[in-house]
């Protein structure tokens, strides 16, 4: 069977990683690249750098990766859908919910595979965590809390921290809990002189009763990527920077020191750092996209799921503006 012909549009920071991984994944051939601003990272190698999406389409591709700025997702995605090309769009799906809805509808109407690059779902620590939750290792899940903090990335120019980093946490939380968001309350701050928010604190509730908390910012000198899931039997801590997963078990040993035992809700049990395989998340994401195009499996982040995440992100921003909790419209 011939390899799938892949086109890549957008050769910036994410584009260069997509280009590298596409070349590494079995069954894929990177045959065309495009970026109106050139190729600062040398992604093209021996390929001609095309000027835009129409030239990319003309190269005769089976599937495409769109790593262009968020504001261009709708234009590029609609052109690829019209041409009948399966497409992975970087997250978020689009700059606004109406634009995202148009993309969902365009790819569905053509019967195409449309995916969104919420790469955290493919982090081995989170994939292992989701399976363990599904297997009942934690019992009933009570809370999912995330912390995603670090310095401002120069690559971001057209959205704030909610639609950039925050959408990772919204997506992974709903995916881990296998439940949609029911409501959110948020506060944001703008400290760096840019027009968009650079810090957000969000509390929320999922439809299945799990409560959530997300701290996200571009203002911290330390980089942190943590997901903490607390439940009936203890807590899992996933560090997605290192792909480490640790289980903190509720203890069964009585606490003899009464002054400590008085304020501990549960006693401390064993702490286990779990041994898991650690493939590169971007490679796993591309393998899933390839297999979805081939009809072998379907564990991509669909455009409909990406749209759900964007709707929650916009509710977060509305809550921050109004000072009121926002219910999520399904």
From TrEMBL:
Keyword tags: NAD
Aminoacyl-tRNA synthetase listed as a keyword: no
All residue ranges annotated as the GFO/IDH/MocA-like oxidoreductase domain in the record: 127-236
Q: Which GO terms describe its molecular function?
A: nucleotide binding
Where does the record place the Gfo/Idh/MocA-like oxidoreductase N-terminal domain? 4-118
Q: Is the keyword NAD assigned to this protein?
A: yes
Protein name per the record:
Dehydrogenase
